[in-house]
Amino acid sequence: MRQHTIRKPVSIEGVGLHSGKVARVTVSPAPPDAGVVFKERATGERIPARPESVVNSHYATTLGANATRIQTVEHLMAAAAGLGIDNIEIEVDGPEIPALDGSAKPFVALLAFAGRVQQSARRRMLSLPCPLRVGGAGRWIHIVPSDTLRISYTLDNDHPAIGTQVLSWSPSERSFVEEFAPARTYGFLRDLGLMRKNGLARGGSLDNAIVLGNSGALNGLRYRDEFVRHKILDLLGDLALLGRPLRAHVIARNGGHALNLELVLAVQRAAGLERRAAATASATAAEEAAREAAQREGFVPAPGLVTI
Ligand SMILES: [Zn+2]
């Protein structure tokens, strides 16, 4: 199997879910082995989409380098991974990738419009040397070696609209486009005030998220089990930080971006892909997470689940 990029540059614009700021994203072709690289327009800072670039994984995956931050990269990353696109440059003129409809569907449409081109270099799959596990009692991800990628997910929540949702999926491009890319992010109305006070969900609305009231969703669902489908979509986007398609069975229960990142770092270590800089980068990420947590005095994440 060869690597792929897109045929021509394409752009899309919209509001960021957390920042509430409008940003324009331009996706362009990139050479073989470039991977996915984000670029902030104003500073020209380039941030490779790799585990060591993650500076925050609360409620969304944020990449950073020096003082530049690009928030909520996961749905665009999932779209590229789901369509088998290995190499692209993503230029952003704001702090966050637009939420659009809260799913990966608009990014899939954008990348499909750009067209896909096969490149000369071979795609290198990533195999696991041994099973791994991250997390604790109620929230964990287990990963075992396999010939192909499979994601099995259990989402448990006492909200009546969610309950227990279980899905096992072996990705194909068609099923990704039809059954997973359109699944939207979700949040609880009861958390909205506190999240906004803490600089989160400022661009969130019924247009870009499923909003859950006390008894049910305030907007209609695209799938009966849209919530677990979105969790799988997020996991796919975060796994794409490894830069190579994974041959493994990923079994998750009540995960979120922070746990996904723990998994990605564990896979990277086990597969011997860790770069020398990685230890420094994750120390910086941990320091920044602690600093941000301290700044949000009084901020308590929703119990049991990372909602977005
Ligand atoms: Zn998401």
Q: Can you offer a commentary on this structure?
A:
- The protein is of the alpha+beta class and 308 residues long.
- The protein has one domain: lpxc deacetylase, domain 2 (lpxc deacetylase, domain 1).
- Helices cover 27% and strands 29% of the residues.
- It has helices at residues 74-82, 105-114, 173-180, 189-197, 226-239, 257-270, 278-295, and strands at 2-6, 10-15, 22-29, 36-40, 46-48, 54-56, 62-65, 68-70, 88-92, 116-122, 126-127, 132-135, 140-145, 150-157, 163-169, 186-188, 210-212, 246-253.
- Strands 11, 12, 13, 14, 15 and 18 form a six-stranded mixed sheet that branches. The chain has a five-stranded mixed sheet with strand order 2-3-9-4-5, covered by helices on one side. The chain has a three-stranded antiparallel sheet with strand order 6-7-8.
- α1 (74-82) packs across α5 and α5 (226-239) runs parallel beside α6 (257-270).
- The structure holds zinc ion (ZN).
- Zinc ion binds at residues 74-75, 185, 230, 234, 308.
Structural features:
single chain, 308 residues, alpha+beta, lpxc deacetylase, domain 1, 5-stranded mixed β-sheet, 7 helices, 18 strands, 27% helix, 29% strand, disordered C terminus
Q: Given the structure, what is the number of helices?
A: 7
- Radius of gyration, taken over Cα atoms and rounded to an integer in Å: 18 Å
Shape descriptor reads globular
Q: Provide the low-confidence segments as ranges.
A: 276-281, 293-308
CATH architecture: 2-Layer Sandwich
User: What about the largest sheet?
Assistant: 6 strands, mixed
What CATH calls the topology is lpxc deacetylase, domain 1
Name given to the CATH homologous superfamily: lpxc deacetylase, domain 2
Cα separation of the termini: 34 Å
Number of domains: 1
Provide mean pLDDT, rounded.
90
CATH top level class name = Alpha Beta
Helix content: 25-40%
Secondary structural class: alpha+beta
What's the order of the H and E elements? Answer: EEEEEEEEHEHEEEEEEHEHEHEHH
The ligands bound in this entry are: zinc ion
Work out the strand percent. Answer: 25-35%
Number of strands: 18
